[in-house]
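Q: For a teaching handout, I want to show students what a protein-ligand complex looks like in token form. Below are the inputs, and the small molecule is NDP. Please produce the holo structure.
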Amino acid sequence: MASRRYPARQLYYDGEPRPSTAKRFFETIDPSTSKPLADVVCASPADVDAAIASASRAFPSWSKTPPAERARVLLRAVALLRARNDQLAAVETHDTGKPLSETSTVDVVTGADVLEYFANLVGGGGLNGETTQLREDAWVYTRKEALGVCAGIGAWNYPIQIALWKSAPCLAAGNTMVYKPSEVTPLHGQFLAELYTEAGLPPGVFNVINGGGDVGSYLTSHPRVAKVSFTGQVSTGQKVASSAAGGMKYVTMELGGKSPLIILPDVDLDIAVDGAMMANFFSTGQVCTNGTRVFVPKSLQADFEKRLLDKMQHVRMGDPTDMSTNFGPVVSAQHLEKVLGYIRHGIEVDKASLLCGGLKKPAAPSASADMGDGYWVQPTVFTNCKDSMRIVQEEIFGPVMCILTYEDVNEAVERANNTQLGLAAGVFTKDLNAAHKTVARLQAGITWVNSWGESPAEMSVGGWKMSGVGVENGRRGIEAWVRNKSTLVDMSGAVATAFSKL
Ligand code: NDP
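A: Here is the structure, written as tokens, with NDP included.
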């Protein structure tokens, strides 16, 4: 095999890296150069069975381990994640193409924060049930019990963060997990599994299998899987949820969006432009919560666009490992085609006005910044968009902003809600009352006021409508990983019976 930056990536179960029974490999590619980074072992159905068997063996003991003791193990993993932040961030940058300036400050950090949050939550009694006194001699108590073996399926945009956002509450609650990363960005999987083992996680509690949709489908429909937590596209989520429904499995679905960002007339325009840029160009636009439909008052359009074009000069492409780079390539050749296809459609069919960007491959900013054969696309802004345009209706998942103008706030809110998706929404204004009133009317599970994209461990996040089922993170996030048992205790010494007399 040709030389690769990383050694071949294995499957991981029973606490160790494992080869595949099928001896099949696929390559993972560096999107900034289009060169292979590593050969990755692809799981066969027998391998998935073995990983599930490993998780099943580990479950009885891990679920009975006292929460405080589970928390101690997970907190050791948090310390290791923080100590290895830069090394893991580099892995993510190589695999996703996202700039190191992002991955070293967001991806691993926010994953570790969530692990710490759930470890502290369960260690501090967060899994305790409730007691309700019914009568003097009768009460109800509830217990929150772990579900069993859970499947985690990740998307490619925030690989290690997604793996941690799923495994943290899952393991803290006493479940075991078989995790499948996207085959587009699988590098982090084995690193994370090894780190958990080093932290003292017993063999079989966290397992990794690699492969494409067929492997994911086999895993999520497996009869020994009690719950599926999925992050990905709506269309894939529908398939996974249907197959899980057949087995009455618990599901969490974190799916796509086409989120509205509404700028109110009294706004500080510079803040609004900063927000709109973060909501469209961070991670090269590959963020599920992106505010890609930017509603601007007609009277502010010219000023907004002028300030936006000025600030677009601050987008710096180049070597993603250079800390001054803030805009990387998109993740794969296939995704580049998809994003360019939408830009082409916007120009040729939708006939939106192209304010900046477009189809041309961006030029390297300097002779030293070799952008090679990477999957580069220009940050693109369309204006004078109409609600009926395809670029306004469908999730592009790339750096493409659509500006829509409005005359009246009620009209903007109505148009913002006129979509099947409901992941995120936000409003920029100096008027406190208008902010809360507008946010209250927006149909989305994640909303921001004068901010965009921050998603701390304490904040429960999840989509409405076709954007998902359930939430991740925050206190409510643990509920998705336990089942409730209610017990009524009667100490009266008599059973109230309808059958005591003839
Ligand atoms: P996909 O739906 O294509 O894939 C997601 C995962 O599902 C991958 O691991 C994929 O494997 C796997 N998969 C594919 N087919 C099946 C199947 N039939 N059964 C089980 N698993 C399957 O999504 P993308 O990877 O393209 O991710 C981008 C999408 O994710 C966007 O829509 C984005 O909005 C959404 N997303 C949502 C988030 C949220 O929190 N709401 C967060 C991040 C992203 P493989 O890749 O190997 O084919």
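A: Two things your students might notice: The chain has two domains: 11-255+467-486, 260-449. The first strand starts at residue 11 and ends at 13.
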